[in-house]
Amino acid sequence: MGLEMRTCSRAWTCRPLRGALVCAFLLSASVLLPAARTQETVVHLDPEQTKVEFSVGSTLHTVHGTFKLKSGEVRFDQASGKASGAIVVAATSGDTANDGRDKKMHGKVLESEKFPEIVFTPNQVHGKIAPRGTSEVKVAGVFRLHGQDHDLTMTVAVEQRGGNQVQATTHFGVPYIKWGLRSPNTFLLKVDDTVEVEIHAAGQMNFETAQN
Q1: How far apart are alpha carbons 1 and 193 in whole angstroms?
Q2: Residues 42-89: tens digit of each pLDDT
Q3: Within 10 A of 197 (CB to CB), how many other CB atoms are there?
Q4: Separation between Cα atoms, residue 170 and residue 158, nearest integer Å
Q5: Residues of the chain under the 50 pLDDT cut
């Protein structure tokens, strides 16, 4: 009976010790093992080679204009589609080749002095970009206009060129009235409530190793 009690006592003493040793081993292993690495696709857009064009219909004619890209970088994991980065357009650069119309657009609609940037922040890329030729992906993210954020998903055609050169084209509508901007309508002039935006972008696509 005494032998059984001593054996049992040793067992209960050893179990916590073994558990502590196992925990210590696992902890040291997690510290010593290298962190998992994933490959991240990085696209840098060239402002000089990127065109941001827009058009909006009215009772008189269709107005065409342009904006200038300030900067653009999109990072995403091709496996998970998780994305980050920002595409920044200078709101103050809006130009329709009509001084009076541009003054009204900047002063009363965009209020570009108060909100000088239009920013798209991607958070998810749906689809894969092929190593050659043209691919079509959907890029979801947040479109910030006039100080307000709006969910937006755009379909983007991506074409791989020689080396790491890449071109991308997309077209989407911006329902600016619905999003809270002031209507430019007058008694005689009626303007559509959605602006059509078309972007022809060029840049470089590189691959970087990211540590999780």
Answers
A1: 91
A2: 999 999 999 999 999 999 899 999 999 999 999 999 899 999 999 999
A3: 20
A4: 9
A5: 1-14, 17, 22-24, 26-27, 29-35
